[in-house]
Amino acid sequence: MSSTHSKSSSSSSVAIQSTILQGNICKINFCQFCGGPNKHEIPDGEEKVRAICTRCGKITYENPKMVVGCLIEHDKKILMCRRKIHPSYGLWTLPAGYMEIGESAAEGAIRETWEEANAEVEVQSLFAQLDIPLIGQTYMIFLAKLKNPHFSPGPESSECQLFELDDIPYDSLAFSSMLVTLNLYIEDIKVGRPKFHYGVINKRPGTSPSEIHAYTLDFHMQS
Ligand SMILES: [Zn+2]
């Protein structure tokens, strides 16, 4: 798996990023403040095309979303959930989801684990922050322990299972972010204890989200 890692960054992926981000912005046709029609222009003093209301003049900014989740260690195994929702229906993931306004990242990770695996966890430390600029997401994955040995599939999961590290279902993982997280974790465990990792997942231009191996891990830092 380490062959998919690279420290290089390509300018072509940056170009693709800005095209796609502009594409996303162009989908915001109506103002979120007054409901008026938006135009799409570069405002004075800015560099990107924004959705600007033609009625009230306010700009609808789009910013990355935070995805929070848990890597739950139990008896040298880790807890994974099989998705019962799209995208990546039927594929395996660590419990994770979008952070809500009003909660901390750690609270969000605990909540998502409860919702997806009916598991009560205590977070131990932050394991990885992984940015995915192409789709405007940042993942924060916490190391966590089960407060009790009970878990079962929540409404968004068809199965929840503890996997030995050798048995992780690598052939049916849901997302590149999970592949990166699990690779980093297993590499850490081989040589000792989990560290903290920061990295940027750059998907290869022209590949679909389901091609989870089509990425480079750039700017990888660990401590
Ligand atoms: Zn408006």
From TrEMBL:
Keywords: Hydrolase. InterPro entries: NUDIX_hydrolase-like_dom_sf, NUDIX_hydrolase_CS, NUDIX_hydrolase_dom, Nudix_N. Residues 63-186 form the Nudix hydrolase domain. Coiled coil: none annotated. It comes from Solanum tuberosum. Pfam families: NUDIX, Zn_ribbon_Nudix. This is Nudix hydrolase domain-containing protein. The keyword Protein transport does not apply. Gene3D superfamilies: 2.20.70.10, Nucleoside Triphosphate Pyrophosphohydrolase.
